[in-house]
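Running co-folding for NAP.
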Amino acid sequence: MEKIILVTGGGRGIGAACALLAAEQGYAVCISYRTNEAAATEVIAAIEGRGGTALAIQADVSDESAVERLFAQMDKRFGRLTALINNAGMLFPQMRVEQMDAVRINRLLATNVTGSFLCAREAVRRMSTRHGGPGGSIVNMSSRAAVLGSPGEYVDYAASKAALDALTIGLSKEVANEKIRVNGVRPGLIHTDIHASGGEPGRVSRLQATVPMARGGDPLEVARAALWLLSDEASYTTGSFIEVSGGR
Ligand code: NAP
């Protein structure tokens, strides 16, 4: 069976590492991005330059009609997907809970939670044996924040990742007998641009002394875990989480 993957937010950071590794492992790769077309185009060029097949589509995952368009375009180009990495995620500048307003909280939940639900829904409609699909595998990109809570920085983000973990557990049981596995990866402090969007580009360096392995992680180290969970090597693994956090 041809392996076809969608990596949401695949233009940068962890998503880009997942897309590149998936291509290396023989997947036809679709990545989505929200605004950074240049970064997404670079990932596509890198995959095609190595003889792979890749497509980038602009789609804000928090927008239901954009998600439906994304999957329809993917169907047209590649056929039914067999793997999804729900990676698109964001955070806002660091602040305490007592400073947060509803606009911020709802925007964050719309991307990190609603967006992941919508993409999972579209994937299940294509993968599930209930819908005549061949099965498939989903990985949700959670965070160690779901467990640690991110006090003083972004408890809203941590709560969104805890919700994503509940999606992983619930959906994994819902579709376990329909040839779909659903798992999560919880990265720790990984070197990407996301920390700059939280207002502290040097956050990984500041906190790396709190990591038992005493360093931040590389996006590729996260991608390897995600791709393993998607693979047949993980054929009896569902509703599980891999912590990729150097022990933190
Ligand atoms: P990043 O470098 O900031 O990249 C985020 C990606 O998500 C970008 O491609 C961005 O698109 C896309 N994106 C954001 N909002 C979107 C939306 N509404 N619709 C569609 N795409 C959207 O982040 P990262 O560090 O690689 O993070 C990737 C995932 O890992 C996230 O879910 C994050 O929460 C999780 N994570 C990261 C860390 C870490 O330390 N880096 C730790 C734990 C978990 P554009 O390129 O168009 O902006």
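Result summary
The chain has one domain: 4-244.
The CA atoms of residues 92 and 104 lie 8 Å apart.
Job closed.
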